[in-house]
Specification:
Layout lengths: L3 E4 L4 E4 L7 E6 L10 H19 L3 E6 L14 H9 L3 H18 L15 H13 L3 E4 L2 E4 L15 H7 L15 E6 L14 E3 L1 H13 L3 E7 L3 H16 L4 E7 L2 E3 L2 E2 L10 H6 L4 H8 L8 E2 L2 H26 L14 H15 L4 H14 L8 H15 L4
Parallel strand pairs: 3-4, 3-9, 9-10, 11-13
Antiparallel strand pairs: 1-2, 5-6, 6-7, 7-8, 11-12
The chain binds zinc ion.
């Protein structure tokens, strides 16, 4: 395959080459399961799904890890966001994350996002996180302040490389944020909080407490992908601080790059406005499914512009996606009927595939190879269907096979 990907690290298009030939190993920052997930999050899970489908289409073996964050993420007031959300529902933190994780999986299946190889839960990997922190401590990269353990970022000269900004600029972004006592540097990374009042706390060499969010992905990618891997994905909001912090810690541990390619989805607007709580326009996949939108239409709308670009997601995006999905579904039905119903002489052409199939295949592959251009790949298929006369279809079995093959990437039928 001649795949070229825009790497956030460096900001350029680069030819893709996997570390192990024929195998692609990926880590995707997954959901914090404290509430129904918004469509911007699903946009990044769809990018992960698209990558996986493209690699499988090209015949590669794929290992996909997507973490489930269920502990350790703090808000600007230093409160655990899962516990805060739980306190509003009357559920315990554990009950809430278990419920929301089930909903996440149901929603992603509705959007035809295939099962990753592993969905490690942070709570079930605290021992691995403690091992990472102990390892960093042994290497002299941590310090203790008021019972908490921090990673000292001043020994990470490449901090800021992924965001394309020097550490001082990033520090300015955090100015005014509440700081725990004794933390030396705004950018230093929370590794362990000593806190026996936290709803869930574990024993550790530094006292009972809970791990910091940024150490979770480091420990889980280390466990399931064993060192460097090919692709790391997330939303643009994950670049800093989360991914910068992952890079700093894992490079301190191994001296090697964590991932070779970093891919991020762009921001999502709703009818021109940023999707935020303040704008009261946060849309969740669950809301849309409950309102009767089909998962395949939500999927097509979220993939309707290139993953790095700003996506304006509102009624108009859904209205544009719906007829596209319907065209694929109707053509699929038509071909199924043509292959199972009474023989129709104009469709019974045997031999090599009809020319339109090969032309579409070429355009389809070229679009995906060019930085995963899903909208152009879908357009290649829709454009071909739109121009087809019944006598051009050729052997309907071959046409059906081609459509289902393309859909292994598009994910509209399944
Ligand atoms: Zn992560």
């Amino acid at each position: 395959m001649a795949l070229v990907l825009t790497n956030t690290l460096g900001g350029r298009k680069e030819p893709f080459e996997s570390l192990v030939p024929g195998e692609v190993r990926m880590y995707h920052c997954g959901p914090t399961v404290k509430e129904h997930l918004n469509v911007a999050k699903f946009r990044s899970y769809l990018l992960a799904d698209l990558l996986r489908r493209c690699f499988e289409y090209a015949g590669c073996r794929v290992v996909q890890v997507m973490n489930i964050t269920d502990v350790g993420q703090l808000n600007e007031f230093e409160e655990d966001i899962v516990e805060i959300a739980a306190s509003r529902t009357g559920l315990s933190a554990v009950e809430l994350v278990e419920k929301e994780e089930r909903i996440f999986h149901a929603d992603r299946r509705a959007l035809h996002i295939r099962d990753a190889t592993h969905y490690p839960r942070a709570r079930e990997h605290v021992a691995e996180m403690i091992a990472v922190i102990a390892d960093l401590e042994k290497r002299g990269r941590t310090y203790e302040a008021a019972g908490n353990i921090y990673f000292d970022i001043r020994k990470s000269p490449r901090f800021g490389e992924l965001a394309g900004k020097p550490a001082e600029d990033l520090e300015r972004l955090l100015a005014g944020k509440k700081q725990p006592p004794g933390k030396r540097h705004l950018l230093d990374i929370d590794l362990w909080r000593r806190d026996v009042l936290h709803q869930t706390h574990w024993p550790s060499p530094w006292g009972r407490g809970f791990p910091g969010w940024h150490v979770e992905c480091v420990a889980m990618s280390r466990k399931y992908l064993e060192g460097s891997f090919d692709i790391h994905t997330g939303t643009c909001e994950n670049v800093f601080p989360h991914h910068e912090c992952e890079i700093a810690q894992s490079e301190a541990l191994t001296g090697k790059p964590l991932a070779r390619y970093w891919l991020h989805t762009g921001p999502v607007l709703v009818d021109g406005l940023p999707m935020t709580r303040d704008n009261r326009n946060v849309m969740t996949a669950r809301q849309m499914l409950d309102a009767g939108f089909r998962g395949s239409v939500i999927r097509a709308a979220l993939l309707s512009v290139h993953h790095r670009e700003v996506l304006d997601f509102g009624e108009a995006a859904m209205d544009r996606a719906r007829p596209r999905v319907n065209t694929i579904l109707a053509f699929h039905e038509h071909l199924k009927e043509a292959t199972t119903g009474a023989p129709r002489p104009e469709l019974r052409r045997k031999g090599s595939p009809a020319p339109w199939i090969e032309e579409t295949e070429t355009r389809f592959r070229a679009a995906l190879d060019d930085d995963l251009d899903y909208p152009r790949a879908l357009e290649a298929v829709l454009g071909a269907i739109g121009k087809l006369e019944p006598e051009d279809i050729g052997d309907p079995r071959q046409a059906l096979e081609a459509l289902e093959r393309w859909d292994r990437v598009l994910g509209i039928l399944a």
